[in-house]
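G., the chain you wanted modeled:
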Amino acid sequence: MTGIWGAILLAVLAWWFFTGAILLVIRLADRSGGAAYRRAVVLSVPLLALGTAAVILSAPETGLTGVYAGFLGALGVWGWIEMAFLTGVITGPEVRPAPPGINGQRRFWAAWQALAHHELLLLFGFLGVTVAVHGQPNSVALWTYGILFFARISAKLNLFFGVPRINLEFIPGPLDHLKSHLRQGPITPAFPIAITALSFAVACFINLLISAETQAEAVGFALLTTLSALALLEHWLMVLPLPDARLWRWMLPDSTTPNDRKTGRSHGL
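Predicted structure as tokens:
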């Protein structure tokens, strides 16, 4: 049981730390402006390299080391891709706000154009992790990336179709145009579908955790259960009036950019 609770704590801390670290780097780049965004992506390439190595090396390992390495490796790969997106380095071919008044297929196409390159990179990462663990006994890295991948797609679709709460505080300068693609309003059928799917995933991982035959299996399913539960929580935060931004706001510097200091503006993910 100690190993299971330790895994749950690690998953929560990893989720909090990786998110906070990325937001911190983006906030510092916002303050510097210019080439700081690309520099942040380049300097974080070791995170991608370490994550990729951990995913590959963990695949044949069925012990605790392999389980933790696969989990953290997938988070490293995912974290670098998120860094590339939030800095505006890899987003989509369209960097202008959505034209006012568009709806239906035109609105969806405009949103896709704003995100296309990032979505394809996420898919490429998913395929890469799949190839790395194919035929190997340890698939924790694949499940970790898969949970993040499908939860992110679900979250983006819900933000596109409409949710009551949208936290714009942490959206960096290079992604300001994405705000025009979000819709704040009543939930749509996409939300209960997402909640049901994520709840089912949590229940499945809990069942696998209970029936695990080894400590390594139990730890792996504890990590995946927690990650799925956190994805479910993030969806509920689109509806429930909870101050989730406080989890990271205290650790971030002022978001004022050089241009903001000239104009007297301030922004305040």
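Residues 257-269 have pLDDT under 50 and may be disordered.

Shout if anything looks off.
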